[in-house]
Amino acid sequence: MACCRAHSSAQCRARCRWPGRPSHRRTTGGRPHRRGPGRPALREERSVTTLDERRTAPSPAEAETSTRLRVVLLLDVLDGKEQQFLQAYEQIRHQVAAVPGHISDQLCQSLGNSSQWLITSEWESSEPFLEWVESAAHRKMVEPLHGCVRDTTSLRFVIERETPDPALGEARKSPRSSSASARPAAGTDPLPAPPLCTGGVVRHAITFTVTPGSEEKVARLLADYESPKAQVDDTTRLLRTSLYMHGNRVVRAVEVTGDLGNALRHVAQQPEVRAVEEAINPYLEEERDLTDAASARAFFARAALPAVEHATSDPQAGEVTRVAYLHPIDAQQGPSEARRLAGLDAADCTDPGHALAAATVFQRGDVLVRVLDVRGPADSGDPHGLARGGRRMELITDRTSHDA
């Protein structure tokens, strides 16, 4: 784990837009403080490190005056541009690796929002970095990324402490082997992959079953609770919670801006939500103990129902009603069936005369749910032919904005 101390904002910290676009710049020793290399961002477990071998351990004397620079670049990638973004980065990273003074970089994707990426790069000092980032070669090099990102934030730090410490002869740890004994237990991460984010909105669902005969009691409990505070933090907010049942299956779909993991933790900590979750515990087919961290993680990992596709018309107009359909599928056919249904929904959304305004497909294993926004009131029938073989789910509660 590297430990970096942020210097004063006038020395090594900046928030700026992509080079070549209007930006607010701070200065470093009289020089423009611009954003770092156009590098992509934090891709959760999927990361790329380049030329790490070029780093050499400094002597104790050199460590006292270390000037190594860490550049952190946060990016928000545009909808539908992820592959273009990755291809551009793949081309650029090899060019950057050849720049004098460059040591290494990593590209990562957020586990809480699939549109949020992070690039970290390490340099021998600020001088070679600034010389490169202010050059015409840099501006030309990062041009392929301009059409892929919505916003960027660049931060720069001087490395002050590091563990393990090369100055003390401490060797870096080798990556753990890929043997089964070295891997963490499977199925215990509620968000094992970045959740779908489109239009700045992250969509996710959880599903579980209750004991037959308890459906009415569970529905009353889930419909009657005080909504948690919608604002999670400076960048994360709950937008909507829609809860449905069909038979003994419960599906709760959520929409948030920002980081989904932060939003889920926020909701789980609210007393009113904890009270409802405790009240339905006796009726669950699979036992859980949300007071135990490991048990809670395992439950939400089992219950996770990721959004795999989202389509919307542009613009949405008039009254919109939300409905949901549960589709009986075979687990092996689940992904292909999800793509097929998503394709049909997307085609309807692009038809300005069609009633379908938006559609999200959630699928995992043998559970596939479509949540649809339909123009006008939605009666109990299917006048627009949207069921596509699915079973209409009963709406328990649908809360938006401040009461999400």
From TrEMBL:
<keyword id="KW-0560">Oxidoreductase</keyword>
<dbReference type="GO" id="GO:0004497">
    <property type="term" value="F:monooxygenase activity"/>
</dbReference>
<feature type="region of interest" description="Disordered">
    <location>
        <begin position="162"/>
        <end position="195"/>
    </location>
</feature>
<feature type="region of interest" description="Disordered">
    <location>
        <begin position="18"/>
        <end position="63"/>
    </location>
</feature>
<feature type="compositionally biased region" description="Low complexity">
    <location>
        <begin position="176"/>
        <end position="186"/>
    </location>
</feature>
<dbReference type="InterPro" id="IPR007138">
    <property type="entry name" value="ABM_dom"/>
</dbReference>
<dbReference type="Pfam" id="PF04486">
    <property type="entry name" value="SchA_CurD"/>
</dbReference>
<keyword id="KW-0503">Monooxygenase</keyword>
<dbReference type="Pfam" id="PF03992">
    <property type="entry name" value="ABM"/>
</dbReference>
<feature type="compositionally biased region" description="Basic and acidic residues">
    <location>
        <begin position="41"/>
        <end position="56"/>
    </location>
</feature>
<feature type="domain" description="ABM">
    <location>
        <begin position="69"/>
        <end position="157"/>
    </location>
</feature>
<protein>
    <submittedName>
        <fullName>Antibiotic biosynthesis monooxygenase</fullName>
    </submittedName>
</protein>
<dbReference type="InterPro" id="IPR011008">
    <property type="entry name" value="Dimeric_a/b-barrel"/>
</dbReference>
<dbReference type="InterPro" id="IPR007575">
    <property type="entry name" value="SchA_CurD-like"/>
</dbReference>
<feature type="compositionally biased region" description="Basic residues">
    <location>
        <begin position="18"/>
        <end position="37"/>
    </location>
</feature>
